[in-house]
Amino acid sequence: MRCIIRKKTVKRMAEFLMCVIMPLILSGCWDRIEVNDLAIVVATGLDKTEEGEIELSVQIVNPKSMGSKSEGGQGGGKQNTVEKTTGKTIFDARSKLQEKVSRKLFWGHNHIIFIGKKLAEEGIRKHLDFFSRHPFTRLRASVFMTNEKPDELLKIEPDLERSSAEVAKDLAMLKVGLSVTAKDLLDMLSGEKRGAALPMIQIEREPPNTEGLKIYGAAIFNNGKMTDQLDDKEVRGLLWIRDEIDTASVTINPEEGEELISFHIFDATSKLIPSIENGNWKIKIEIVSEDDIVENETKLDMMNPKIIEKLKEQLEKQIVERVKLALEIVQKEMKVDVLGFEEAFHRHYPDEWRKANWEEVFPEIEVEVVSEVKIRRPGRSTAPQGVPENEVIGN
Amino acid sequence: MIEKGRISTGQMVILLYPTVIATAILLVPGITGKFAGNDMWLSPIWASLAGCITILIMAQLHNRFPRQTIIQYSEEIIGKIPGKLIGFIILFFFFHSNGLVLREYGEFVVGNFLPTTPLVVVIGSMIFVSGLAVRGGIEVMARSAQVFVPIVLFLFILIVILLIPDLEPANLLPFFEKGLIPSLKGAIVPTTWFLQLFAITFILPVLKKKEGGMKWGMITVFLIMVTLVLSNLFTMLLFGKLTPTFTYPIMEAARYISIADFIQHLESIVMAIWVSGTFIKISVFYYVIAVGTAQLLNLQDYRPIVFPIGGLLAVMGLWTAPNLQQIQHFLITTMPFYAVIVQIILPLLLLIAAVIFKKNTKKIN
Amino acid sequence: MMNEMGKETEGFTSKIKLRKSKKSQKKAVKSLQSPQEQELLSQSLEDNENKFRSIYKDCSDVVIRSFYIGGKDNAILIYIEGLSNTQEVDDSVLSPLMESSGEGNDQVKSLINKKIPVTSVKEVKTVAECISEISSGNPVIVADNQKTGLAVGLAQYEKRSIDEPQAETVVRGPREGFVEALSVNNSMLRRRIRSPKLKLKSMKAGKYTETKIVIAYLEGVADPTLIEEITNRVSKIDVDGIMDSGVLEEFIEDDPYSPFPQFLETERPDVVTANLLEGRAAILVDGSPFSIIAPITIYSLLQASEDYYSRFLIGTAIRWLRYVFLLVSLLLPSLYVAILTFHQEMIPTTLMITVAAAREQIPFPALVEVLMMEIAFEALREAGIRLPKQVGSAVSIVGALIIGEAAVSAGIVSAPMVIVVAITGVASFTIPRYSASITFRMLRFPMIFLAGTLGLLGVMLGIILIIVHLASLRSFGVPYLSPMAPMKFNEIKDVLVRAPWWKMNTRPHFTGEYNKSRQADNQRPQPSNGGDE
Residues in domain Spore germination GerAC-like C-terminal (chain A) (predicted)? Predict the structure, then answer.
C-alpha cells in the first residue's frame, strides 16, 4: 500500500514539474535582454527640422571602449556614439533610429534632455508626454535648452568627464544655475502655471582645443513656447525668488575702494507672502541667508561686531538689488510668471485668484523684497592676513 | 466546519489590511486626485465610514451565528433556496472582484515591467502561488501575511522617508478650495475598497477568541484609512496637480526616488514587494471563493476544488475587461453601486430578517 | 548502569507489545527471532550451550568458555571479543568463581552477592535476554542446574576520544563534542544537568542493528505530550537498521517532502543542554555523534551556540549579520540575473556602464553564466568535503583561484559574476547549521531559473512559495516560523535580538509553555559604585 502511495506521489510530482517548470523554461524569457544587446542611452537631444519633423539625437555609451585592462587592447574607439534621425513623433523617430542601431535602445539611464531652439520656440509641451508615458524613461532627467544643435552638444568630448551627458548632469547637480527635471518641467507647464524656465547650456571652447559645456542663463517659456532669455545675473535673481539657491557667493565693496569682501552663502531660503488689500495685489519676498566670510581684501577686522553689522547691511542691499534686477525683467518686461507668484496667490486667495485675469494682474503686482543676512563665521582668520597690526581698521 | 485552523485577532488584522491596501494604494491616489484635487487626502477618511458600516453589520450577524459564514447563515435566515441564491450572488461577486484584482495586478506588472510577457503567465503564476497558500488553510495564509505585511509596511515607510527631500508642503494649499464636495466625491471610489472588508465574514468564525472581532475589525479600518491618507498626502505633496495624470502615482513616486545618485529607480523592488501584498489580497479572495463554494455545495473539504477554481479565476482575469481603461471606468462608474448592493445592502437585509424572525444559531459549539 | 539496562529491556518489550497490537504491518520484527530465542533458559547446561553454539554459529568473535565454579559446577561464560573488558572478567568474575570454596548449590542471587565483585550484575532468564546482553558487551555466565544466567556489566569497547566538534566550532565556549558511543554522550549530558529531572529514555530501533536510541528531556519542563509523541513516532519505526540520526530523522519528521530540516542536528552537549532547558527534547542515537533536537523553528537553525556566550550586543549584531547573509546566499545570484537582464534601469549609470563593459565579450547569457559558475562552485565545495584532507586544500586553491582567474581572463565569465558567486558562497557558510545552509544553497537554483524567466517578479514569486511552504511547516506541532508568524511579541527577544540573559525570564512560547518561568526576575547586575576614593 505504501508502495502505491509513493508511486502516486512520484507521478504527481513529475506532473507538477511538467506543468510548472517546463512552460517556464520552454516559453523562454519574454522580456529578458542581455546587457550586451542594449544600447544605453545617456542623453537625448530634441529639435525640429526645417520641414517640421522631430529631430531625435541620442548619445549611446560604447562599452567596448572601457573594457577592463586585463582584456588588453580590445578597448579603444570613441567612448560614446551619437546617432540622429527625424520622425513625426519622438517614438516614431526612435523606431527609425532603431533601424540604424544594432542594439536595443534603452532609455532607462537617460539623465539628460537637450532641447533645441527651434523646437522650444514652437512649443515643447506635446513632446514631453513621451517622457512620462514610456515605461523606461526617467522623470528625474534634467532638461536643458540650447541655442545650438542638440546633437552638436552630444558629440562634445569633454576633458574631465566621460561624456557631455555626464558634464550636464553634474552641472545640474551642483545647482550653479537653474536645475529643472522633467517632472519639474511638466509641473510648471501643467495647470494654471503658464510660465516655465529652463537652464540654457552651450558649448564652451575656452581655452582653445578643449571642449566642454557651460550653463549660461535661462530660457523663459510662456504657454510652452520659448519667448525670452535671461542672462546669468538675472538667473541668479530668479533663483533667489524661487528659493532654489543652494550655495552662492556674494561679493561686496565695503569702502568704495578697490578692495572687496566675498561671502559664501551656505544656506538661503526665500518665502513668498502674498496679500490682497483693497484690490491691491501685493507680494512680499522674504529672503533669509546665512553667510561665511571667505575672502577679505580690505583691512577691516572681521572680528569687530560693528564692522560686521555694517557689512551685513551692505550684503542685504546687494541681495535685494540682485532680486530686483531679475524682477524688473521677468515681471515688467517679459510678463511671464516663472516666479511662482500665481501659485502663491492661488493657495492663499483662491477666490480672488479665480476671478482675476492673471496675465493682466501679474505685471501690476507690487513686490516688496526683504532680505535678512546672518553672518555666521569669520573663517579661519580673524584680522586680515598680511597686514601690519597698526593698519588694521577697527582693531 | 471546513476550516480547522484557528487564528488570532491580530492575525485577522494583518490578513485584512493588505486585502484592502494592496490595490488601493496603487489606484486610489490617481482616482481620488481626479475628483478631489488638493483635498484628496481627506477622501479616505469619508470612505472609511463605509468600512465601519460593513464591519458593524458583519459583526452583528456574526454574534447571531458565531461559527458560520454568510453562505451558511443566509440559508438559516431565509430558507434553503433563497439562501443559496444569496450565497451564489456573494460568491460570484468575490469571483468577479478577484478576477478584477488579478487583472489589475497583471496589467500593472505587464504595463510597467514586463511589456512582452504574456498576461496569462503573469496571472497564472500568481494563481498557482496563491492556490498553494489557500490549500494550506487560513493559518498558513495568516502566517504568510505576518511575514509579508511588515515588509510591505517597511517599504511604504521607506518610500515616504526617501521622498521627504522632494516634498513640497505648499502643494496642499488651498484647503477646501471648492468646499467639502470634491473630497466627498473623491471618497466614492475608495469606498469600494473599504467594502472589501466584507471578507471578514469568512474570518470571524475561525477566530480563536470569539470576542474582539469587531473591535479589531474597526482597528483594521482605521489602519487602512491612515495608510491611504498618508499615501494620498505624499503623492499630493510630491506631484501636486500632476497626481491624477499618472496611472499609478505611488509607483511614479518610487521611480522618482534618488538618493546620492546611487539608490535610484527603485520601482522594480517596490513592484516586487508590492506583489507580496497583492498575493495576500488575491489569496484571501481566493480562499473566500473556495471555502464559500464548498459550503454552498455542502462539500466536506474545500481543498480539492482550489485549483479548478484557480483555472476559472485565470479566465475571469483575462476576460473581465479588454484593457486597463475599461477596468478604471468600471471601478469608477459601476463598482460603487455593485459593491454597496452586495456588501452592505444584502447583509443588512439579512440582518433585519434575522432580527425580525429572531433567528439565531441553534447551538453554539 | 544496571538501572538503565533494565529500562532498556522494558522499553523494548513494551515496544513489541505495541507492535503486536499494531496489526500485520509489524510482523517482520517477530519473524526475525528464531523460536529458540524466545525460550527460557533450560535447567541443563548442555542444552543451553548447544543453543548458544547454534545461535552463534560462524560468529568467530563470540567466545564460549567452559569452566567450573568452585571446581565442581559446570558453567559457561559467553562474551564477544573486543566488547568486554577481558582483564576485568578474569580478575573479578572467573578467578573468584573458580577459586570459590564451593559451598553447595548456590543460587544465582547469592552468587552475585558473594562472589562477583562487579557493580552491575543482572539475572537473565531467557535466551533473548542473554543475546541482548552479550551483544551489548556484557559477558553472560550460565551455570549447570540454574534456571537463570548472570550478565556481568563489564562492557568495554574501543571508542573515539572526546574531541572538538568538527562542524560546529566556536571561539568561546565548551570545546567537547559528542562521540559515537551513546554511553559517553549520556554521561556528557548528565555531567551538565545533574538534576534527576534529566530523563534519558531508552529505546531501540532496527531489526538487525538494534540501535539504542535515547530520548533526553527534562521532566517538568518539557511537555509530556511532546515526549509521548516522539516515543510514539520512534516506536513505529521498523527498518533493518539505523546508521545515523539522519536516518532516524526521516522516519519521524512532520513533512517528509520538505527541503527544510525539521530537526536541529548538533554535536555539542552544551547546545543540547540549552535546548533541554527550553523544554525541547533531544534524541541521541548510538553510533552517531549527532544528536537531533525537536521541535525547532527556522530561527533555531540560525542561532549559533556562541551567540549566547558572547556579549549580548555582539551576539545580536552577529545574528543580524547571519540573517542578512542568509538572504544573500539565497537571493544574490537570482537578483543579479533579474536586475542584469530585466531591470537594467535599477543599476546606477556608472556601475551599469562598468558591468556592460565587463560583459561585452562574454558569449553566454547571464542566466547560463550564473548557473555555470554556481554549479562549479557547488562541485568545488562537494569535492572539498569528499577528498582526503591532504588533497582538499589543493583542490580549493586550484578551483577557486586558478579556474576563476582563468575563466575571467579567457572571457568566458565576467568578473562581476565571479564576485557574485564568491560572495554567495561565503554567505552560505555563515549559517551555523550545515543542514540549513545546504538547503538554502540548493534553493537558489530554482530561484535563478525564476529570475531568468520573470525577473524580479519571478524572484518574488519564488520567495512567496518558500514562505508559504515555511508557514505550513510544523515541527512536532510548533509552527516553523514562530515566533514571527504567528507573532509572539515577547518571544522576539531571542530572534531579532539576543536579549541579555537576565532578561530572558520565560521559556520560548511553544516549547516552554508547560513550565514558563525560567529564572528569577530582576537579575540585572546592579553594582554599587562607591565614590572615587
Answer: 217-379
Would you list the domain boundaries of chain C? Answer: 33-152, 320-478
CA dist., res. A347 & res. A393, Å (int): 50
CB nearest to C343's CB, from B136, B141, B268: B268
What pLDDT digit, counting tens, does each position of C79-123 carry?
888 888 888 888 888 888 887 765 555 566 676 667 777 888 888
- The CATH class of A231-395 is alpha beta
Cβ-Cβ contacts under 8 Å, C481 against chain B: 143, 146-147
Residue type, position C2, single letter: M
Our CA dihedral for C423, C424, C425, C430, rounded to 10 degrees, sits at 90
pLDDT at A226 over 60: yes
- Residues in C lying within 8 Å of A, measured between beta carbons: 257, 340-342, 344-345, 349, 352-362, 365-367, 408-409, 411, 415, 449-450, 452-455
State the residue range of the domain holding B319: 9-357
Mean local confidence (pLDDT), A145-153: 84
| Residue C125, C-alpha cell as written in the block | 532468564
User: pLDDT digits over A30-61, tens only?
Assistant: 777 888 888 888 888 888 888 888 888 888 88
| B5 inside 8 A of chain A by CB | no
The minimum CA-CA distance between C236 and chain A, rounded to whole Å, is 15
ipTM of the complex: 0.90
List chain B residues with CB under 8 Å of A20: 128
CA distance C235 to chain B (A): 28
CA distance B90 to B70: 9
Query: Are the C-beta atoms of residues B70 and B201 closer than 8 Å to each other?
Result: yes
| Residue B364 covered by a domain | no
Number of separate domains in chain B: 1
Q: What is the CATH number of the domain that holds B235?
A: 1.20.1740.10
Contact A31 B264 (CB under 8 A): no
Domain ranges of chain A: 37-63+79-230, 231-395
Q: Does the beta-carbon distance from C367 to A29 stay under 8 Å?
A: yes
Closest CA to A61 of C352, C109, B82: C352
Q: Dihedral of CA A9/A10/A15/A20: which sign?
A: positive
Q: Which residues of chain B have pLDDT under 50?
A: 363-365
